[in-house]
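ok so for the tutorial part 2 we go from a plain amino acid sequence to predicted structure tokens. step 1 is just haveing the sequence, like this:
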Amino acid sequence: MTALLIGLGPLLGWGLYPTIASKIGGKPVNQIVGSTLGTLIFAIILFFANDLTLPSGMDLTLGIVSGIGWASAQILTFKSFELVGSSRAMPITTAFQLIVASLWGVAHLGNWPTMTDKLIGALALVLIIIGARMTVWSEKKDSANTNNIKKAVIILAVGEIGYWLYSAAPQETSITGMNAFLPQAIGMVIVAVVYSLVVAVKEKENALMQVVSYKQIISGFFFAFAALTYLISAQPNMNGLATGFILSQTSVVLATLTGIWFLGQKKTPKEMKITIVGLILILLAATLTVIV
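step 2 — the prediction. this is what the tokens look like for a chain of 292 residues:
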């Protein structure tokens, strides 16, 4: 029961994170500044509370690169929220992450070694694509809406490079996820500060001086809570990597539904039914990708 409750931490953290960030408001630059500061504060508290040691050398570098990857991708994800809303963007980015993680596992980590594994894995990837397409289906065809969805898909596809770095870089180190957490947070803040300075030069508005940026620290706490509980959940004496990953992916359901319920991202009854079926397909596919 304890392991299950911890495993559901990412459901709450990552499920509520995009909705809370959107609800607090501000531009993507405000959202990324606050989110990364919240994550850094959380990581520092965790670091000292558990008497952890800061990695050095290449381990430290890859940890920071991991955080840079996440923050860069998250900026693009926030931009996609502006185009189609979090309820449509989250299933798409989740689908991209599942596809890339699966293909990376096959190509680099030796996952899906048998032909049966590969066939089941390929089926899972097809289900992910179908499920993601269903979540953005619109009953009323509108050229502006269609163009926004296309733009959002392209933005999220580019952003997936960053999410891949976030997951892949720590795998090349000898440190635990707990020890990688602070370096990741440092990398995230580096991106946020650089991005805010670039925006300040272009738009004459410094996000570091705006109150809404610091309100977004709250959303950062939710992200950090999810990341931490996922690290604990994935440990062998808890749920293990496979089950922990599946439980973490349930966050897409909460992120999508709360976006619809609390942010006014309306769907018709028919669109809602198709969206729910799409989410179920994505979760089923996530399950398949980790049991083969």
